[in-house]
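Let us work through a complete example step by step.
Step 1: write down the sequence.
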Amino acid sequence: MWYCLPRAKLFTVMRNKQELTNLLIELLTDNKPDYKTALHSWWYNTRDGGGMRLTSTGFVVFKKLDFEYWDFVLPEGYSRKNKRVILGLDRKLDWPYYYGKHRISFFSSRDAMMVNLTGDIEQWLSNSF
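Step 2: predict the structure and record it as tokens.
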């Protein structure tokens, strides 16, 4: 679905949740939420410069709009509440991502490919940044 947005516009809003939220609201065809509701229900961190982590509601909206995403499956028994990983992802990723119970879903094919090639999210974060 990224293809329906002008390429220059997409790259200017890539790390800007406020503008991205407005664009997503425009793309929705039914049950359009107001901006404040969308911002606070779709993103974990709504501050300027905060991470691009999606809530489960935000992830559903992205899937509803047919955005492509790629999964990294977390190993069995992985501590999902690893704050170092969450902070690393928030600081370094420019594209939205969803941190689920058993996987991390990336909306950047480059990031997804690199973490899957590494095979370890913590190693990938420490090596690539």
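Step 3: interpret the result. The radius of gyration is 15 Å.
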